Amino acid sequence: MDRNDEGSGGGPGPGESVGAEGGDPEAERPVRVGIAGLRLGYQIAAACALAVVAAAACVHVAMLFLHVAPSNTLTKQHGDVVDEWIYPEFEQNWKLFAPNPLQQNVAVQARAELRTADGGVRTTDWYGLSADDGAAIDGSLLPSHTQQNELRRAWDFYVGSHDSQNRPVGLRGQLSERYVRRIAYMRLDREDPGRKGDEIARVQLRSKTTSVRPPKWSDEKVSLKPAYRMLPWWKVEPDDLPLADGKGDAGAGTKGRAGSDAEGAAR
Fold first, then answer.
1. Could you give the dihedral angle defined by the CA atoms of residues 180, 182, 187 and 193, in that order, rounded to the nearest 10 degrees?
2. FRET partner for 114 with CA separation of 20 to 30 A, picked from 10, 81, 85, 258?
3. Reported confidence tier of residue 216, pLDDT bands at 50, 70, 90
4. According to the 3-state scheme, what is the secondary structure of 87-144?
5. Tens digits of per-residue pLDDT, 140-184?
6. To which H or E segment does residue 151 belong?
7. What CA–CA distance (Å, rounded) separates 122 from 113?
């Protein structure tokens, strides 16, 4: 057998493409990977999706920068827009990296004054609102944002807008009072502290602050005796009642006022 015939019977020589001798044009095209390998319609859709993701990432980085940056012209003019974007999901909290992090546990408790069905008055025991949140979070793989932060943020809001005598400082103080009062009422109402026919007339909150025990290797001495901050009794207003679960005269008052507001708007 001729040696030339043996060479022609082997694979394609250098520089030759598979299928070229058979006249197959598809075999000569280079293989495309990634987005380039998709059809034109899919390429356009993928490009649009990437553009949206890139734009959202740029906006997010810009908002974070304006949030942590010192006060400037942009933050003064558009501070509300930045806060709406950042809070509550993207809030930056640097206490973990502070040189002196929090060394106290603050627990919020509440109790209710009930107006009984026979016309009497009865005060309930203290309910551990923070303890309930902790029990709901413990062991949960996906705890809700409400369970983690609603009560904690509301209490921080109240403390930050009141003086040591529990007197509100400005309009934010009054707003924080109503917010904390509603949370306390709605949680106590879910506990159903009274008997049939009893209604919650007033609520009271207090905080129990306990120092964290220092580690064994530390020489720091702290008192483990809890300190309490007692808030005054707050009367439950019609606006504090859940819209879907209004009870008694308070619910009627809410409906009556809504009706009067509607009549005023109609006039």
1. 110
2. 258
3. confident
4. CCCCCCCCHHHCCCCCCEEEEEEEEEEEECCCCCEEECCCEEHHHHHHHHHCCCCCCC
5. 888 888 888 999 999 999 999 999 899 998 888 989 999 999 999
6. helix 145-160
7. 6
